[in-house]
Write a structure and sequence with these properties.
132 residues; alpha+beta; TATA-Binding Protein
């Protein structure tokens, strides 16, 4: 797995355990869970078969969000941050888009420090969730 726009972490922990831990650990870092999307259930409820387990967990730190939104409301299109949790080759994978990479779309240099702080915290949340 290599993509300069994404951050990946993996663990041997079961997907359900990872989802539970992620919510708890995010809260310790002052990131609230806004929503959890079960993609398999959602697609199958619409009559579209999808055999893989995948959750998309939306997290947000309101203080950080306020800083970047005050600089450019268009950043709201990239909020909240999302962490995908899915199974791949016997491991549970966590993946998220780099907040610093997303920020470049908006050309707002004043928000770079906040984006880096959010990115660093997202990495810590993912690593702690994986047991690190």
């Amino acid at each position: 797995m290599s993509n300069e726009l994404l951050i990946f972490r993996s663990t041997a922990l079961p997907l359900e355990t990872v989802c539970t831990r992620l919510s708890e650990i995010a809260a310790k870092h002052k990131f609230g869970v806004q929503a959890v999307h079960n993609l398999r259930e959602k697609m199958e409820s619409k009559g579209v078969p999808f055999g893989r387990e995948c959750r998309v967990i939306e997290v947000c730190n309101p203080s950080h969000a306020q800083v970047v939104l005050n600089q450019n409301i268009e950043i709201s299109t990239a909020l909240p941050c999302r962490i995908a949790v899915y199974a791949e080759a016997g491991r549970t994978i966590l993946a998220t888009m780099k907040p610093t990479a997303l920020l470049t779309m908006f050309n707002i240099p004043g928000a770079a420090a906040t984006a880096q702080e959010v990115e660093d915290t997202m990495v810590r949340i993912m690593e702690e969730t994986c047991g690190g």
